[in-house]
Amino acid sequence: MILNRSELEELLQTRLPPGVEGISGVTHDSRAAGPGDAFVAVSGFKRDGAEFAPEAVRRGAVLVVAERELTGLPVVVVRDAREALARLAAAVCGHPSHRIPVYGITGTNGKTTTSYALHAVFSGAGPCGLLSTAEIIVGRERRPALRTTPEAPEVQSALDGMLRAGMERVVMEVSSHGVELKRVAHTRFAGALFTNLSRDHLDLHPTMEHYYRAKRRLLEWAEGPKLSNADDEWGLRLAGEVEGVLTFGRTPRADYRIEGVEDGGAGMRFRLRHPEGVLELESPLLGDYNVSNVAGAAALALAAGIPEETVVRAVREMPQIPGRFERIGCGQDFEVVVDYAHTDVGLAAVLEVARALAGRSGGRVICVFGAAGERDKAKRPKMGAVSTRLADWSVVTTDDAYSEDPGEIARQVAAGAAPGRYEVILDRLEAIRRALRLARRGDVVVVAGKGHERVQHLPEGDVPFHDASAIRALLRQDGEVEVARRSG
Ligand SMILES: CC(=O)N[C@H]1[C@@H](OP(=O)(O)OP(=O)(O)OC[C@H]2O[C@@H](n3ccc(=O)[nH]c3=O)[C@H](O)[C@@H]2O)O[C@H](CO)[C@@H](O)[C@@H]1O[C@H](C)C(=O)N[C@@H](C)C(=O)N[C@H](CCC(=O)O)C(=O)O
Ligand SMILES: Nc1ncnc2c1ncn2[C@@H]1O[C@H](COP(=O)(O)OP(=O)(O)OP(=O)(O)O)[C@@H](O)[C@H]1O
């Protein structure tokens, strides 16, 4: 869509420099700028976007939107460049969120899982798009995502693409970065859900209170059904502070109440008691925390008018989620699970579920994991302690080391580990190979940390690495060796 001069002046509430007739696109990245675009100079964490304005103009940008005057360029000065970026992006895409209901999912943990569950349920009622940390799904087309919530131009053009592809609803994960950095500003939300809040991202938010308020804003914006987790203290607070918020959870005061949870081995069974009845739900996702995630998604779908039978069927049949307790089966007689858990808390949650699974067949738990470089160092020994406490054998390996020495990170992880219960194999592929070779019938191998990701960031550069593909390749190789041995 083209925004003409008067529309732009109206949107930006200011006069444009002479000679600018209109724009056909908007970007914050000079490298992506093209003829007819507006370039919005955002002040980043590392660089000031204004430095790149001349390059954007060289590439064809006809207007620069900045927070200060830049000589020799067609600049319009605004108070808040990020706000202007979102405003222009929504307008240039024709406000897709006004024409397709968008449901936002926020919280520290469980966003991806809840989003997939809600996407599965909505898909039972009509074509539904998904913007998540793991993937962007439009109908049958799936592509890996780069970020939880991308910048406003990408958000708006993804929504526009979904509308054009005939989607009837969109489910979107909304990170606190997404709210705080105005990546979702000027998006209309038809509904929203809050999963929980725990310590995270305090590099962006000065305090937990700020972090909470960023998440709360999504529910304040939402126009339709709003759900919050009453089992979480922040979720309960939010329900008391934002008008129209309904709650889900195990607590008897929840509007959508989780009851009678049973671990059926292949999945979880529970009842969801709601204002108008009771649903008997069966979900293939293991673990108590996934009962919360699925219940939240089911509650939001019911509140959005999806029929009960559609919810029940979709929950029962929902597919695996890439890198979230993803079970890899290649005919082996033990379980292999890939999970994104990359904190001590996440690792503990996943290993508890793995223990319950292994316990059923008298098997052991073997855990392959590492800690990321250039991130919270305090969690490294804690992860070592958690793994050696909950797994029978741990293989400490390399996660995304970034510029740090993988050997040094592993030493810091090992500093918290119980002696005699682990080994260190820095090469991730070799570490996984070792764990698979150690596994016997009924064991559960957990490969944690990278989940759906397809690149490993190492000091020598980025290398392609995808845990699930590596595991499949190794299992097939070993399976072939095993068959050859037996038949030879
Ligand atoms: C900390 C953070 O959010 N950083 C984001 C930020 O980067 P930055 O401030 O360092 O950017 P910069 O390098 O200083 O550049 C400033 C500006 O100049 C522009 N630029 C830069 C170079 C150039 O050649 N030309 C150019 O125009 C950039 O596009 C940018 O607009 O602005 C960039 C462009 O908009 C983002 O890509 C980048 O996200 C990075 C990749 C990132 O990892 N973000 C993470 C922390 C994030 O957003 N995570 C959340 C939460 C996930 C969760 O829930 O766990 C998410 O939603 O994914
Ligand atoms: N409701 C929950 N409560 C606590 N922990 C959870 C919950 N749901 C998931 N987790 C843990 O968090 C991990 C990540 O789950 P998921 O990807 O669904 O969350 P997320 O909020 O999308 O995180 P990210 O944005 O980092 O992907 C899981 O592997 C599990 O260990």
From TrEMBL:
The keyword RNA-binding does not apply. GO terms for biological process: cell division; cell wall organization; peptidoglycan biosynthetic process; regulation of cell shape. It comes from the Bacteria. The lineage of its organism: Bacteria, Bacillati, Actinomycetota, Rubrobacteria, Rubrobacterales. Pathway: Cell wall biogenesis; peptidoglycan biosynthesis. This is UDP-N-acetylmuramyl-tripeptide synthetase. InterPro entries: Mur-like_cat_sf, Mur_ligase_C, Mur_ligase_C_dom_sf, Mur_ligase_cen, Mur_ligase_N, MurE/MurF_N, UDP-N-AcMur-Glu-dNH2Pim_ligase. Belongs to the MurCDEF family. MurE subfamily. GO terms for cellular component: cytoplasm. ATP binds at residues 107-113. UDP-N-acetyl-alpha-D-muramoyl-L-alanyl-D-glutamate binds at residues 30, 148-149, 175, 183. It comes from Rubrobacter taiwanensis. Residues 323-451 form the Mur ligase C-terminal domain.
